[in-house]
Amino acid sequence: MRFIFKTSYAQDLSLAKHEGHRFWYGLLGLLLLAAPWLLSEYLLAQLTFILIYSVVGLGLMMLAGFTGLFSIGHAAFLGVGAYTQAVLTNMGWPFPLAMAAAGLLSAAVGVVVGLPALRVKGIYLGIATLSFGFIVEEVFARWESVTGGNTGKTVSAPQMLGWAADTGSSFYFVCLVVTVLATLACLNLLRSPTGRAFVAIRDSEISAQSMGIHLAYYKTLSFAFSAALAGIGGALYAHQIRFLTPDQFNIIQSIDLLLMVVIGGLGFIHGVFLGAIFLIGLPQAISVVKDFLPEAIGGAPGLKAVVYGAVLVAFVLFEPMGLYGRWLKIRAYLQLFPFYRQGMFKRQKSFQKSDRLK
Amino acid sequence: MSAPLLQAQGLSVRFGGVLAVNDVSFEVQAGEVFTLIGPNGAGKTTVFNLISRIYTPTSGSITYSGPQGPMTLTDMPAHQVAGAGIARTFQNIELFEHASVLHNLLIGYHTHRQSKPWQDLLFTPRVRQAELRAREQAEKVIEFLDLQHHRDSLVAGLPYGVRKVVELGRALCTEPRLLLLDEPSSGLNVEETDDMAFWIQDIRHELGITVLMVEHDMSLVSRVSDRVLAMNQGQVLALGTPAQVQSDPGVIEAYLGSVDDVASLRRPQALPQAPTPDLAPAQKGAQR
């Protein structure tokens, strides 16, 4: 059982809470750096997808998990980033510039969505973002001069100053660098006043206002940051998938992204990565298990959707803290063995918020 | 006589057909403890909401002498009130449930942040210095209110009495000049109410903060307040020292009540008595 004794304020601020963190994350870093030599090309491509979806998931987690604004149309920002990257790269722009432009354009679109969304809460915000997602998907399909419409658009490899990242492992390293930077950016935000303002807005808007937090400003900022990360993820997605069509950014993709952050664990950064691993890993697991199932089930066309839905329902019912929450419980069990008790993570229901000021 | 810290003139607010606050005027001098009393529904919390700009009055004005001179509060948006030096607590605790006590206090320090969001993103040394300073200030409040045990606990698991203290601490972290306390002793037992009384006196004497509070506990009101305003149905009933207001006949009739009231509520004839349980065997058992 590890007790963390803090002897300075700086220790409270640091990202690694104790040496165990440094050791395990260092090991993880080494394994990720060595991945192109340890994994087959197919698995490396899947790992690249996991990194790309993690970047998008970081954005959605900051919006939904930490600011409490649920966006069911997030694939729209993914698509804006992807198409911007495709257009600019085909025009010959170097990769970092194109990605920055993709992020900025997505952020601008995020502000456009965020401003009317300031007036609505909860499920109505979900409806507003959902309809926005449909609008953007339709724009992708109709604006054929730029996006190529339903016939699709090919994307050339990322290149910069003559060097092109056109092999699987070179593009993997590009994605790895972007993911690490995005994670550090999110962690920095969360340990600073801006991140605390986000959490305050999630937990109690009225007292956030009384503490001097400008609700409109921070909600818009959260939308912009989240959309920018989704746009950057979309830019990487465009290069990885090489061929864009509007139906890749439909409501199913939005729901997949939301599934990813909810199953991973809402309110935890680790949840993003666990959710991304789940999102990419589940179809692989289904296709492996399919061979052992009887023909009627294994060959059924909607099997993946049914399994996804069933897993989501199971998590909502039995493990609302998600995969990371389950890991926290397992870790507590192992640390406290044999003293672990079943109700340790249960939070007492508080009925104190009877007449909340709205 | 220096200018009052807060002056409400002819304050009224109407919600549809309900006149919640009707022509209320009062002044709060700097450095005093000013209490609003009255029955539930009198409009006391509504006055607080008008001061912290959650509602806009339908008529009347509130003048506040801020650090840069007098300002009219009725023009200000709600999120600028804390920056002007007015902090408040809520009647039903509005803490940030899924954050630790320390983080709640640090959010209270938000108006004193010195960095822009892009600097937060990069966690520049300036942000780091500001964070260290914020933690020092929060530690002073923790020491003042004896919250060391709970510093890193999530608010969601804390008992009610501790949450009330954290709410007070969060308001103190904004480094206010005027503190609005909405029923600080509701739900607290005798010992906790005593602690609250000492803290209010310390806030006034040591920290020099003016306190405007809503309270139902008359003993706390008498101990701590300099002046009391009694309200009923949105209107002012009486204004004066605690002794003056508590002996005002209008206030006694509307709110405090007297012994005669209780006698008049008793039933005119006794009901048929229910058979009392025979206590003798238990007493015999205790004597053994």
What distinguishing features does this structure have?
heterodimer, A: ABC transporter involved in vitamin B12 uptake, BtuC, two-stranded antiparallel sheet, two-stranded antiparallel ribbon, globular, B: 288 residues, alpha/beta, 6-stranded mixed β-sheet, 12 helices
Describe the structure.
The complex is a heterodimer of chains A (358) and B (288). Chain A is built from 16 helices and 4 strands. Helices cover 71% and strands 2% of the residues of chain A. Chain A is mainly alpha-helical. Chain A has a two-stranded antiparallel ribbon with strand order 1-4. In chain A, strands 2-3 form a two-stranded antiparallel ribbon. Chain A has a single domain (25-292), classed as ABC transporter involved in vitamin B12 uptake, BtuC, CATH 1.10.3470. In chain A, a hairpin with a 2-residue loop joins strand 2 and strand 3. The N and C termini of chain A lie far apart (43 Å). By secondary structure, chain B is α/β, with parallel strands linked by helices. Chain B folds into 2 domains: 1-85 and 176-258, Rossmann fold, CATH 3.40.50; 97-174, no CATH class. Chain B is 39% helix and 22% strand. Chain B has 12 helices and 10 strands. In chain B, a hairpin with a 2-residue loop joins strand 1 (6-15) and strand 2. In chain B, helix 3 runs parallel beside helix 6 and helix 5 (125-145) packs across helix 6. Chain B starts with 5 loop residues before the first strand and ends with a helix. The chains are: A mainly alpha (358), B alpha/beta (288).
